[in-house]
Design a protein that fits this description.
This protein is α/β, with parallel strands linked by helices and 304 residues long. Helices cover 48% and strands 12% of the residues. It has 15 helices and 7 strands. Strands 1-2-3-4-5-6-7 form a 7-stranded parallel sheet.
């Protein structure tokens, strides 16, 4: 999710979010903002950077986004939301899609009135997370609303929310008539969830595989962000990767207190020495080239 204001002002950290590798295809880049003109400019930059789809966020419930009039707030301003979609669709040649929540308040059905208008304004697809912004991530996603939205529009609808397993995905598709599902929190620190959903392979990864994937992610994050930024950024990932009963809570807490990434890595290998072997295999499988398909006028590494 990329701030349109950050793109407009050439913020180096924001532009860093558009670092696109050659093997990342097809790729959608999601932008957020509330000014139609600025969103159109940002969309054009995203397309030029190599995005195959421009996605507009009308669903983010986080205060730092909604207080600017962006994200889920726009569900209460349908006229502005439609102007944003129209401006973005007019500015790019790639498909424009929209992700939205059910509405701001619990019980809201705003998505059912706003969704068809967004399609009329140029949205080629809609993704619905049928929780309210007020709910954040509590309670359950009400996919009865997803089914209603599917019946109201003639573009593909993607179901988002509580897609945690292949069984859940199949049940949601069957109940809603959605064209696809979107996986979110279930894949945080748990890339194996995607394989299970796609292939039905529900084998839990070994502790060695978990640590190897985490250490590889740590290496790649340092390469992208630099040591200083990566140190704080990675702390939440320790809990995500090592959770789900894989490691004791005290061990995860210990890692967040270590001052350097090198010390975290050493502690992980001390706990699971066998992780070095799957890590070596994963590193061998990495693409040799790190070609970046961006053509921007400033460095996009982030300066970290």
């Amino acid at each position: 999710m990329v701030s349109c204001a950050g793109l407009q002002h050439g913020n180096e950290r924001t532009l860093g979010y558009l670092r696109i590798a050659a093997d990342e295809r097809p790729l959608a880049v999601q932008i957020f903002g509330s000014d139609p003109g600025v969103m159109a400019e940002a969309a054009a930059m995203v397309e030029e950077a190599g995005a195959d789809i421009v996605d507009i966020n009308f669903g983010c419930p986080v205060k730092k986004v909604t207080k600017t009039g962006a994200g889920a707030t726009l569900l209460d301003e349908p006229d502005r939301a439609c102007r944003v979609v129209d401006a973005v669709a007019s500015a790019v040649s790639v498909p424009v899609t929209v992700k939205l929540r059910r509405g701001l308040e619990n019980g809201s059905r705003a998505c059912l009135s706003v969704g068809p208008r967004l399609v009329d304004a140029g949205a080629a697809s809609l993704t619905l997370h049928p929780r309210s912004a007020k709910q954040m991530y509590t309670g359950a996603a009400d996919h009865a609303l997803t089914a209603e939205l599917v019946s109201l529009v003639d573009v593909p609808v993607v179901a988002s929310g509580d897609i945690t397993s292949r069984a859940r995905a199949q049940a949601t598709l069957a109940a809603t008539g959605a064209a696809a599902v979107m996986v979110g929190r279930a894949a945080q620190g748990n890339p194996w969830a995607l394989q299970e959903i796609l292939e039905g392979d529900g084998v839990e990864p070994s502790r060695e595989e978990v640590v190897a994937e985490l250490v590889l992610f740590m290496h790649e994050t340092v390469r992208e962000l630099g040591e200083h930024r990566a140190t704080g950024f990675l702390k939440k990932f320790y809990g995500w990767y090592l959770g789900r009963g894989r490691f004791p809570r005290a061990f995860k807490a210990e890692l967040t207190q270590l001052p350097t990434i090198a010390e975290v890595e050493a502690r992980l290998f001390a706990a699971v020495p066998g992780a070095r072997f799957p890590l070596a295999r994963l590193e061998e499988e990495l693409p040799e080239s790190d070609e970046v398909l961006l053509d921007l006028p400033i460095s996009i590494y982030g300066g970290g």
